Amino acid sequence: MRLFVSTFQAVALMFLIGGLGVYVISRKIVPSSALKMLSPLAIDIALPALASYNVLTKFKPEENLLWWMLPVYWAGFTVIAFILSLIFMNISLKVYRREFFTSLFYQNGIFFPLMILGGMYGTNSIHLVNLFLFTLFFPAFFHNTMPKVFKGHTKDNHNISLLLNPVFVATIFTLAVRLIGFNKYLPNFVLNGLMMVGGMSLPLLLLIIGANVHTEYHLSRVNAGNNIEWVEIIKFLITKNILFPLVMILLLRLVTLPHDIAFLILLQAAVPPITIVPIITERYGGNGSIVNQLLLFSFIFSLISIPVMVMLFGWYIGG
Q1: CA 232, 233, 235, 241 torsion: positive or negative?
Q2: Which of 48, 96, 142, 253 could form a disulfide with 166 if both were Cys (CB 3.0 to 4.6 A apart)?
Q3: Which H or E run contains 231?
Q4: By the 8 A CB rule, do 181 and 87 touch?
C-alpha cells in the first residue's frame, strides 16, 4: 500500500501541474504559442542540466560496474514491447491498426518516468541517472523508426543526427567527466547552477505537456466532428495500461534483474503513449484524432493504473 500511495501522489502531482497548463491555455491566460516557446527551454536546456547534475553528483560507476548495461536492458524491453504491440494491434479496427500500434509501442519513456521517479525519490536521485542511461537512445530510435509504420513515408528515416540531442550529448559528456574523475575539480557554482536550471525541467515539462494535450485533443475533436471512439479507447486502456505492465511483471518474475532496473522496466510498460505521437502520426498521413483520444484517456486512466501496477510490482517483485 505504501508504494500505491507514494506513486499515486507522484502521478497526482503531475496531473495537478499539467492541469494548470490546461487551465492557462483554456482560459487564454497565456497564448499557446508562449508555452510552445518554452519547450526548447525545458527540453534543450533544463532537462540536459538535470541529467548533467545527477550524473556528476549521483553516478558512482565503482559501485555499479554494469551501468553500461542499462541501454541494453532498454533494447530488450523494446523488443518485448514490439512483439506485444504487433500482437495486440489486431484487436483494433483495421482502419486504426497503425495508430493503435504506434500508441502501444512508443511509450512516454522519459518524461512520465522522470516525473514519477522525481516525485517518489526527489530530483537529485540515482534513479534519474539510471533513467537517462536507460533511455539514452530512445529519442533517436523513435524519430527514425516511426516513419516506417506509415508506408510511403521514408524520407526521414535513418537520421543519425537525431542521436545528438541535448540530453544525449549532456549525458555522454558528463559520463566522461565522471569516469575520468574530473568532476572533483568542478567548482560548486557550476554544480549549483546545473541544479537550479535542472530544477525547472519538471514543472516546465508538465505545464507544456498539459497545454499540448489540451490543444491537440481540442483540434482532434473538431477534425473528427466530436466523435469519440469509445470501443477503441476501452480496448486500448485494457491493453496499454493493464496488460502491458502485467505481462512485464510476469516476465520480471522469471528473470533476475537489479531491483531498480526492474522498476524502470515496469514504469516503461505502464506509462501512456509519448505525447508527440499524434503530431508525428498526422505528419505521415495517419489519423491523429484517434491517437489523441487514445493518448488522453490513457493519461487519465494512468492516475489509477500506474499506482496499482507499482503496488503489484512491490508484491510480486519486491519494493
Answers
A1: positive
A2: 48
A3: helix 230-236
A4: no
Its domain, for residue 174, covers 2-316
Residue 234 CB neighbour total at 10 angstroms? 12
Question: What is the H or E stretch that residue 254 is in?
Answer: helix 244-254
Residues in the chain: 319
As to burial, measured by CB atoms within 10 angstroms (0-12 exposed, 13-18 middle, 19+ buried), residue 180 is exposed
Local confidence pLDDT in tens for the 319 residues of the chain: 777 888 888 888 888 888 888 787 777 777 767 766 778 888 899 999 999 999 999 998 888 888 999 999 999 999 999 999 999 999 999 999 999 999 999 999 998 999 899 888 887 788 999 999 999 999 889 988 888 887 655 555 556 656 678 999 999 999 999 999 999 899 999 999 999 999 888 888 888 877 777 666 666 555 555 578 899 999 999 999 999 999 999 999 999 899 999 999 999 999 999 988 888 888 888 888 899 889 989 999 999 999 999 999 999 887 6
Report the C-alpha gap between 309 and 56 in whole angstroms.
Answer: 32
Domain count along the chain: 1
Q: Which CATH number do you get for residue 76?
A: 1.20.1530
What are the b/e assignments for 245-276, b being 16+ CB within 10 Å?
bebbbebbeeeebeebbbbbbbbbbbbbbbbb
140-179: buried (b, 16+ CB within 10 Å) or exposed (e) per residue? bbbbbbbbebbeeeeeeeeeeeeeebbbbebbeebbebbe
Instruction: Give the orientation angle of helix 126-134 with respect to helix 47-58, to 10 degrees.
Output: 120
Cβ-based burial of 318 (10 A; exposed 0-12, middle 13-18, buried ≥19): exposed
Return the bridge partners of 273, or none: 107
125 Rama class: left (phi>0) / alpha (psi -120 to 50) / beta: beta
